[in-house]
Design a protein that fits this description.
336 residues, mainly beta, ten-stranded antiparallel sheet, five-stranded antiparallel sheet, 22 strands, 36% strand, globular
């Protein structure tokens, strides 16, 4: 029996976003295997939290293993500088949170040990309203979320409520995040120590860092992996998949006339030196032009191998697919 997969949909607000994500990830009718490590209880969660998982503590048949490698995810609403009445003040960000992955905590347990964490990735549900005339939102802004989660991986799509948007009505973002271990190739070498990644969608381009060399991952235009094959920390990995020419004519927008199906592909994680490493789990990528948000796609319907997916029109301007062979593609998340 495969690892238990949970599907969750919900609505929260900017004010409650961090806590809502922590509750969703660590609680539920069935165990999600992710644990809150900071703060010590859910009642204390406000604008910063750290959760953890041991992604290889069970095998694919949910049998215990001896692998106790633990990885961490920090979710935080940062304080940012705001100009008010000619003065610079600090307020909590309204349109994004920062996600950071790590493999070791500091002594106090409220952050990461030195050199054991990635760069922060800005995960946005709206464009920054300060630069858009007529747009305003506050901590009351609703945020929809759609998530699949198991022991090893989280796929999360968020959307800031579009009802308050203004022309050209492209400010409310559908943004995707993938957090966790990737699936190794059958017959490939064992990949445990550094097999934990992060990629998100953002409203602005990421700042480049040299903290771990010129290939330090941003987590926005790439997939950060905890360690490379040789052990270089938090390096950028690209994505690879079958892709059509993004600019060719489409005379028929819909499923194949031959197969009567929509065709999607697995997303391979690839490093510029190590090359193909594995595949992102519980998510596929493909042409989004004929699909609506929340449309259900069924693979091998009526068979024991049946899988249900949901499609999303990702429109965050900066994400890993933007750097791929077809930036017009979208993702579908596995629901069951």
């Amino acid at each position: 029996m495969p690892l238990e997969l949970r599907w969750i949909e919900g609505v929260t607000t900017v004010r409650e976003f961090v806590k809502a994500m922590v509750v969703t990830i660590t609680e539920g009718e069935s165990s999600s295997y992710w644990n809150l490590v900071y703060p010590s209880s859910l009642s204390e969660v406000s604008n910063k939290a750290i959760i953890s998982t041991k992604p290889f503590s069970l095998d694919d048949d949910e049998q215990p293993t001896n692998e106790d490698t633990e990885f961490y995810l920090m979710i935080e609403r940062p304080m940012i500088d705001i100009e008010k009445e000619g003065e610079t003040v600090q307020e909590l960000a309204l349109n994004y949170v920062e996600l950071t992955i790590g493999d070791k905590l500091n002594e106090s347990g409220d952050g990461f040990a030195e050199e054991h964490y990635s760069e922060k990735a800005r995960y946005a549900w709206y464009r920054d309203f300060k630069d858009i005339e007529g747009l305003y939102y506050g901590e009351w802004l609703p945020i929809r979320y759609f998530m699949n989660i198991d022991l090893r991986t989280i796929n999360l799509v968020i959307q800031g409520d579009p009802s308050i948007d203004v022309r050209p009505y492209k400010n409310a973002l559908f943004s995707w995040a993938n957090i966790g271990a990737i699936e190794s190739y059958e017959g490939g070498d064992k990949d445990v120590r550094g097999n934990f990644g992060l990629t998100v969608g953002s409203d602005i381009p990421p700042e480049r860092s040299l903290r771990f060399g010129a290939n330090t991952g941003t987590g926005v235009l790439d997939v950060i992996m905890a360690y490379s094959r040789a052990g270089a920390p938090y390096q950028a990995h690209g994505v690879k998949f079958k892709a059509d020419n993004p600019y060719k004519d489409k005379y028929f927008i819909g499923p194949s006339e031959w197969t009567h199906k929509f065709h999607h592909d697995e997303i391979t994680v690839i490093h510029k030196y190590d090359r193909e490493r594995g595949k992102l789990r519980n998510v596929l990528v493909g042409d989004r032009s004929a699909l609506e948000n929340n449309a259900e796609l069924i693979y091998k319907k009526g068979t024991p191998e049946e899988k249900v997916y949901k499609s999303y029109q990702i429109n965050s301007p900066y994400w890993a697919i933007e750097e791929s062979a077809n930036p017009l593609y979208g993702v579908i998340l596995r629901k069951s």
